[in-house]
Amino acid sequence: MALSAERATRRRTVGIVAGEASGDLLGSQLIGALHELVPQLHFTGIGGPRMEAAGMEVLFPLEKLAVRGYLEVARHFFEIVGIRRKLRRRFVADPPDVFIGIDAPDFNLDLELSLKAHGIPTVHYVSPAIWMWRKRRIHKIKQAVSKMLTLFPFEASLYRQAGVDVAFVGHPLADMLDRVPKRAAAREQLRLPLSAPIIALLPGSRQSELEHMADLFVQTAKQISERLPQALFLVPLVTRETREMFEIALYRNQAEELPLTILFGHAPDAMSAADVVLVASGTATLEAALLGKPMVITYKMPAASYWLLQGRGYLPYYGLPNILAGEFVVPEIIQDDATPQNLSQALLNLLGDEAVRTRLERKFSTLSASLQRGAARQAALAVLPLLEA
User: Fold this and answer.
1) How far is CA 287 from CA 133, 177, 187, 256, 270, in A?
2) Looking at CB atoms within 10 Å, which of 46, 60, 136, 137 has the fewest?
3) In this structure, are 185 and 209 located in the same domain?
4) Residues 109 and 181 occupy one common structural domain
5) 211-241 tens-digit pLDDT
6) What distance in Å separates the CA atoms of residue 254 and residue 257, rounded to the nearest whole number?
7) pLDDT tens-place string over residues 12-24
């Protein structure tokens, strides 16, 4: 499926906004898939290095939007609102053929609402978690978007019931992680012993997350090492800043002698090589599940932000594996309960229970198969009719 020859001869423009690193990855894949269908497309808006490398004109870097937590967002509020106002003026004055907002609902939905009112077709890629909190947003979404693209099948059902045009496109991580080396091959690649118990530690990708969790993860590793001296630890971190923060936490906790390797990226390889994973709540929990890895989910944030979030959720779960399963299939140890004692015990319990690990691996294998659909191409095909309109 492609545009007609007549339409394909003129350059068409796609406005696009991604608000964080995961959106940058989704955006780059979608840009590549759309370019295969319509080579002349021009992309412009807010993106990161991957989207820019895919050929996008970046008007503002996505780092401007990549803040989390109520208090953290409040500090950057006026700058973020100013960027959205400038982008809205630009797109209204020179309308793109379609606008695609990738995640970042607090930024994108208001922008989509305005652009759609000016006759610009709007797509929102990655549903806000309306099934977890703020259910009433679905009414705003219905007004704001011409098409919703969801990563999970149950989300599409919710939108259809509300009368929103929707397409379930699958999850790109399920497509990507299927190619990650399995446990033995990953260990060989990372030059790790096949027989040692290995724990992957993923304390988050943002500096704000490391501020609250680096010491916790180091102290947890210390306690495990005292009880299981043969255990090895892998810590994949994606930036120089977060790597330095974790190294400082090692020194601060007198843990320089831990059998621990900090990797520059390579999170999927680290998780694949591991027996169990300690992971901060977020997309990495889904990565671990798609790799079939037993895990313990944890998270700590500023006390005021956590207090503001209390009572706003409709589900008892934080981690995506539990949300998708509809039950607690893996432990979640959050905020004040997230102590080195609780986390180390939960991880040692998993390491010592082969039957539980096997059951989780089977459950996660079924989950992965349900989400593998070639998401980038499916998303591009869903956008194409709006470009043809």
Assistant:
1) 22, 7, 18, 28, 11
2) 136
3) yes
4) no
5) 989 999 999 999 999 999 999 999 999 889 9
6) 8
7) 999 999 988 788 9
DSSP 165: -
The rounded distance, in Å, linking the Cα atoms of 342 and 306 is 19
46 shares its domain with 190 = no
Judgement on whether residues 99 and 248 belong to the same structural domain of the protein: no
Report the candidate in 192, 262, 252 with the shortest Cα–Cα distance to residue 219.
Answer: 252
- Can you give the pTM of this predicted structure? 0.78
Q: Would you tell me the crossing angle of helices 137-144 and 153-161 to the nearest 10 degrees?
A: 80
- Please list, in sequence order, all residues whose beta carbon lies within 8 angstroms of the beta carbon of residue 41, skipping any fewer than 6 positions away: 11, 12, 13, 14, 34, 35, 387
CATH number (domain holding residue 38)? 3.40.50.2000
Cα distance between residue 313 and residue 317, in whole Å = 9
Query: Sheet of 232-237: strands edge to edge?
Result: 260-264, 232-237, 198-202, 276-280, 295-299, 332-334
